[in-house]
Specification:
The chain is of the alpha/beta class. It contains 17 helices and five strands. It has three domains: 158 residues, P-loop containing nucleotide triphosphate hydrolases (Rossmann fold, 3-Layer(aba) Sandwich); 62 residues, Helicase, Ruva Protein, domain 3 (Orthogonal Bundle); 113 residues, Zinc Finger, Delta Prime, domain 3 (Up-down Bundle), CATH 1.20.272.10. The longest helix is centred in the C-terminal third of the chain and has 21 residues.
């Protein structure tokens, strides 16, 4: 069990990567950055894009450490051992004066941007460079982008920009053209589960194998979300993470309900609708999430019918055994129809009296459009 500690630090913060070697699943970006830094080919502006929680701001801080390390510009800044670098530690703690982090979502006004750019004329106080990390840069106004453009095009030699965004399409092409762009990938379920396992071993946390997979799947590609869910599961499980705890926390029953509904739709099914709905109501799940799971299931079935077992590509969320069983039970046309029905059910969750109504109507619609009349009990 995890030890009690009044200074407990959230797992997502405690295990935030502090060097390139710690970053999970972004080898295509990390290798390029390491090579460019080692060869001293340092661009004046970088743009990191990708979904939330996959390491954009983390990589931006690591780049800053690489450029500001007391031991020289290096892709492997000194953070551990006897030679601790005070610059790197200050950047890690967010107190280094020449690394300025800005939240684009809260500083959208052009006056904010102009005040920021006025400071670029002053050289760095302590480091080699003055580094501006602008998170959610797509939130800046058009006027702010126009103000930023000239400085971004010809900044002083000691100024570097590292921009991060979840929505690069909202950034003007004139800004994009002046940056080195790196697209970060959403992490796979296997990568996240492996990292959860490693962290739990380091922390001495009892973890059931299936629980890490469930947490990784619920994180939807985000390592930060996965570790936040781990903290939540630890609190609920009194220091342990079990499958039942995670299922209870996520208000679901894993793939079991998805399988039961797929059974309902099979030709000559003996599954009873009333029993399935009663089983679902018994745990009061998040019905919208359950519809999300059904959409994912029909998406996977459609792919599996077309492509078969492709484990090496990691393109399926459901277990291959489930997909192999039910891909043979439905026509491709039926799977497409079921997918659309579940999508409509998700949309109806916004307007229905409650989510359970929208979910049950979606299930009834699935049955109404299935090939066989089902037993309703």
């Amino acid at each position: 069990m995890i030890e009690s500690n009044s200074q407990y630090q959230a797992l997502a913060r405690k295990y935030r990567p502090q060097c390139f070697e710690d970053v999970v699943g972004q080898e295509h970006v990390i290798n390029t950055l390491i090579n460019s830094i080692e060869q001293n080919r340092i661009h004046h502006a970088y743009l990191l894009t990708g979904t939330r929680g996959i390491g954009k701001t983390t990589i931006a801080r690591i780049i800053a450490k690489c450029l500001e390390c007391e031991n020289g510009i290096s892709a492997h800044p000194h953070m551990d051992g006897s030679e601790k670098c005070s610059n790197c530690i200050s950047i890690q703690n967010g107190v280094f004066p020449d690394v300025i982090e800005i939240d684009g979502a809260s500083q959208t006004k052009v006056d904010d941007t102009r005040a920021l750019l006025e400071n670029t004329q002053y050289p760095p106080m302590q480091g080699r460079f003055k580094i501006y990390i602008i998170d959610e840069v797509h939130m800046l106004s058009n006027s702010s982008f126009n103000a930023l453009l000239k400085t971004l095009e010809e900044p002083p030699a000691y100024v570097k920009f590292i921009l991060a965004t979840t929505d690069p399409h909202k950034i003007p092409t004139t800004v994009l053209s002046r940056c080195l762009k790196f697209q970060l990938k959403a992490l796979t379920i296997e990568q996240i589960a492996y990292q959860i396992d490693n962290i739990c071993k380091k922390e001495g946390i009892a973890l059931e194998n299936e629980a890490s997979y469930l947490l990784a799947r619920a994180a939807k590609g985000s390592m930060r979300d996965a570790l936040s869910l781990c903290d939540q599961a630890l609190a609920l499980g009194n220091g342990n993470i079990t499958k039942d705890t995670v299922l209870s926390m996520l208000s679901t029953a894993g793939d079991s309900f998805v399988v039961q509904i797929l059974e309902l739709l099979k030709t000559n099914s003996q599954t009873d609708l009333a029993t399935v709905l009663d089983n679902i109501r018994a745990i009061s799940p998040n019905y919208k999430n359950l519809l999300d799971d059904l959409v994912t299931a029909f998406h996977d079935l459609a792919l599996y019918q077309m492509m078969g077992n492709r484990n090496s590509l990691r393109i399926y969320s459901l277990d291959n055994a489930i997909l192999d069983n039910y891909a043979k039970s439905f026509t491709a046309e039926a799977v497409q129809l079921y997918y659309q029905i579940c999508l409509a059910g998700i949309e109806e969750c916004k307007n229905a009296p409650d989510q359970s109504t929208a979910f049950e109507m979606a299930v009834l619609r699935l049955l109404a459009f299935s090939a066989q009349k089902k037993k309703i009990g």
